Amino acid sequence: MTDSLLIPLHVKYIQSLDKRTDELEYWLTEHLRLNGLYWGLTALDLMNNIEALPRDQIINYVKSLQHENGGFGGHTGHDPHMLYTLSAIQILVTLDAVDVIDKDKVVAYVVSMQNEDGSFRGDQWGEVDSRFVYIGLMALKLLKRMDAIHVDKAVQWVLQCQNYDGGFGNTPGAESHSGQVCCCVGALALTDSLHLIDQDMLGWWLCERQLKNGGLNGRPEKLEDVCYSWWVSSALAIIGRLHWIDKEKLSQFILSAQDMEDGGISDRPGNMVDVYHTCFGVAGLSLIGYPGLKKVDPVYCMPEHVIARIGLKK
Ligand code: FPP
Ligand code: ZN
Question: 5, 66, 192, 193: which one has the fewest Cβ atoms less than 10 Å from its Cβ?
């Protein structure tokens, strides 16, 4: 157990990820390669170590994943999807290199994913989920092209995802879930629509996600998980109620999930680490003011200085 963030170890862990080709995990997560780069790069920048990954190589790799229809695949030869398209834009914006890709094509791809009712599909196969509304809105906001879609319809659809308990689900009528809450609240923040929801009710649902051990869960009766340090806290921060949870206990919980020998953060103490939980653990710590980290923006899950550089900081 340690009460400090082991930054040099986590930097080494993230650097090692593309060299672990002898591990099964490396091959099982091939479809997440681009997401992994976004998670790793974001964690590194927040830990003041963005230069630990090779900038030019990343830019060329991301560029190589754009398809003719404008969307991005998760790795070489993989089909385009909204999840990877957002990661591509976030990486390029973070590296100040968004001009290397065809932005108009990305915009056309995102526009092509919006349904008549305002919702968004994840890809050509048609899955609808509040994650994709958030992703579509964020991608266009980062590209300064929100005008290209039906923003009002998107907002109306997101509002339908709010439940009587104050939380949000993945589609209208679906059970409240912290990940979806983060996406819906993010979508409403991106469209200046937060005044349309009951923020006190939502705040109650969110702060009740904190368990005795300080960790946060995704739904009532579920176990704590480090990634929810992000999904829950970012939504609380966006609605100005981050002080409704015990930050010190949350900080202790995240720190207790570190691998103190090889670096990286896991979902909960004692489990295998991965770059996803490393990113959201570090981002969670940044959000609650852990010393020595760069500030993260709760709406974009990107370093605040990047959002300020492109003129989107509120
Ligand atoms: C739960 O993950 C989290 C969600 C459902 C939200 C995911 C949001 C996105 C992919 C949008 C992009 C996000 C950012 C930060 C830019 P899970 O189902 O893996 O959780 P589990 O561990 O409970 O299964
Ligand atoms: Zn998790």
Answer: 192
Residue 1 located in a structural domain: no
Give the pair of three-digit tokens for residue 91: 């990486």
Range of the domain at 170: 7-309
Which residue's CA is the nearest one to ligand 1's atom 7? 179
Q: Tens digits of per-residue pLDDT, 169-196?
A: 999 999 999 999 999 999 999 999 999 9
Which value does ipTM take for this structure? 0.95
CATH number at residue 209: 1.50.10.20
The answer to whether position 2 is within a domain reads: no
- What torsion, rounded to 10 degrees, do the Cα atoms 273, 275, 278, 279 define? -160
218 lines ligand 1 (CB under 6 A): yes
140 lines ligand 1 (CB under 6 A): no
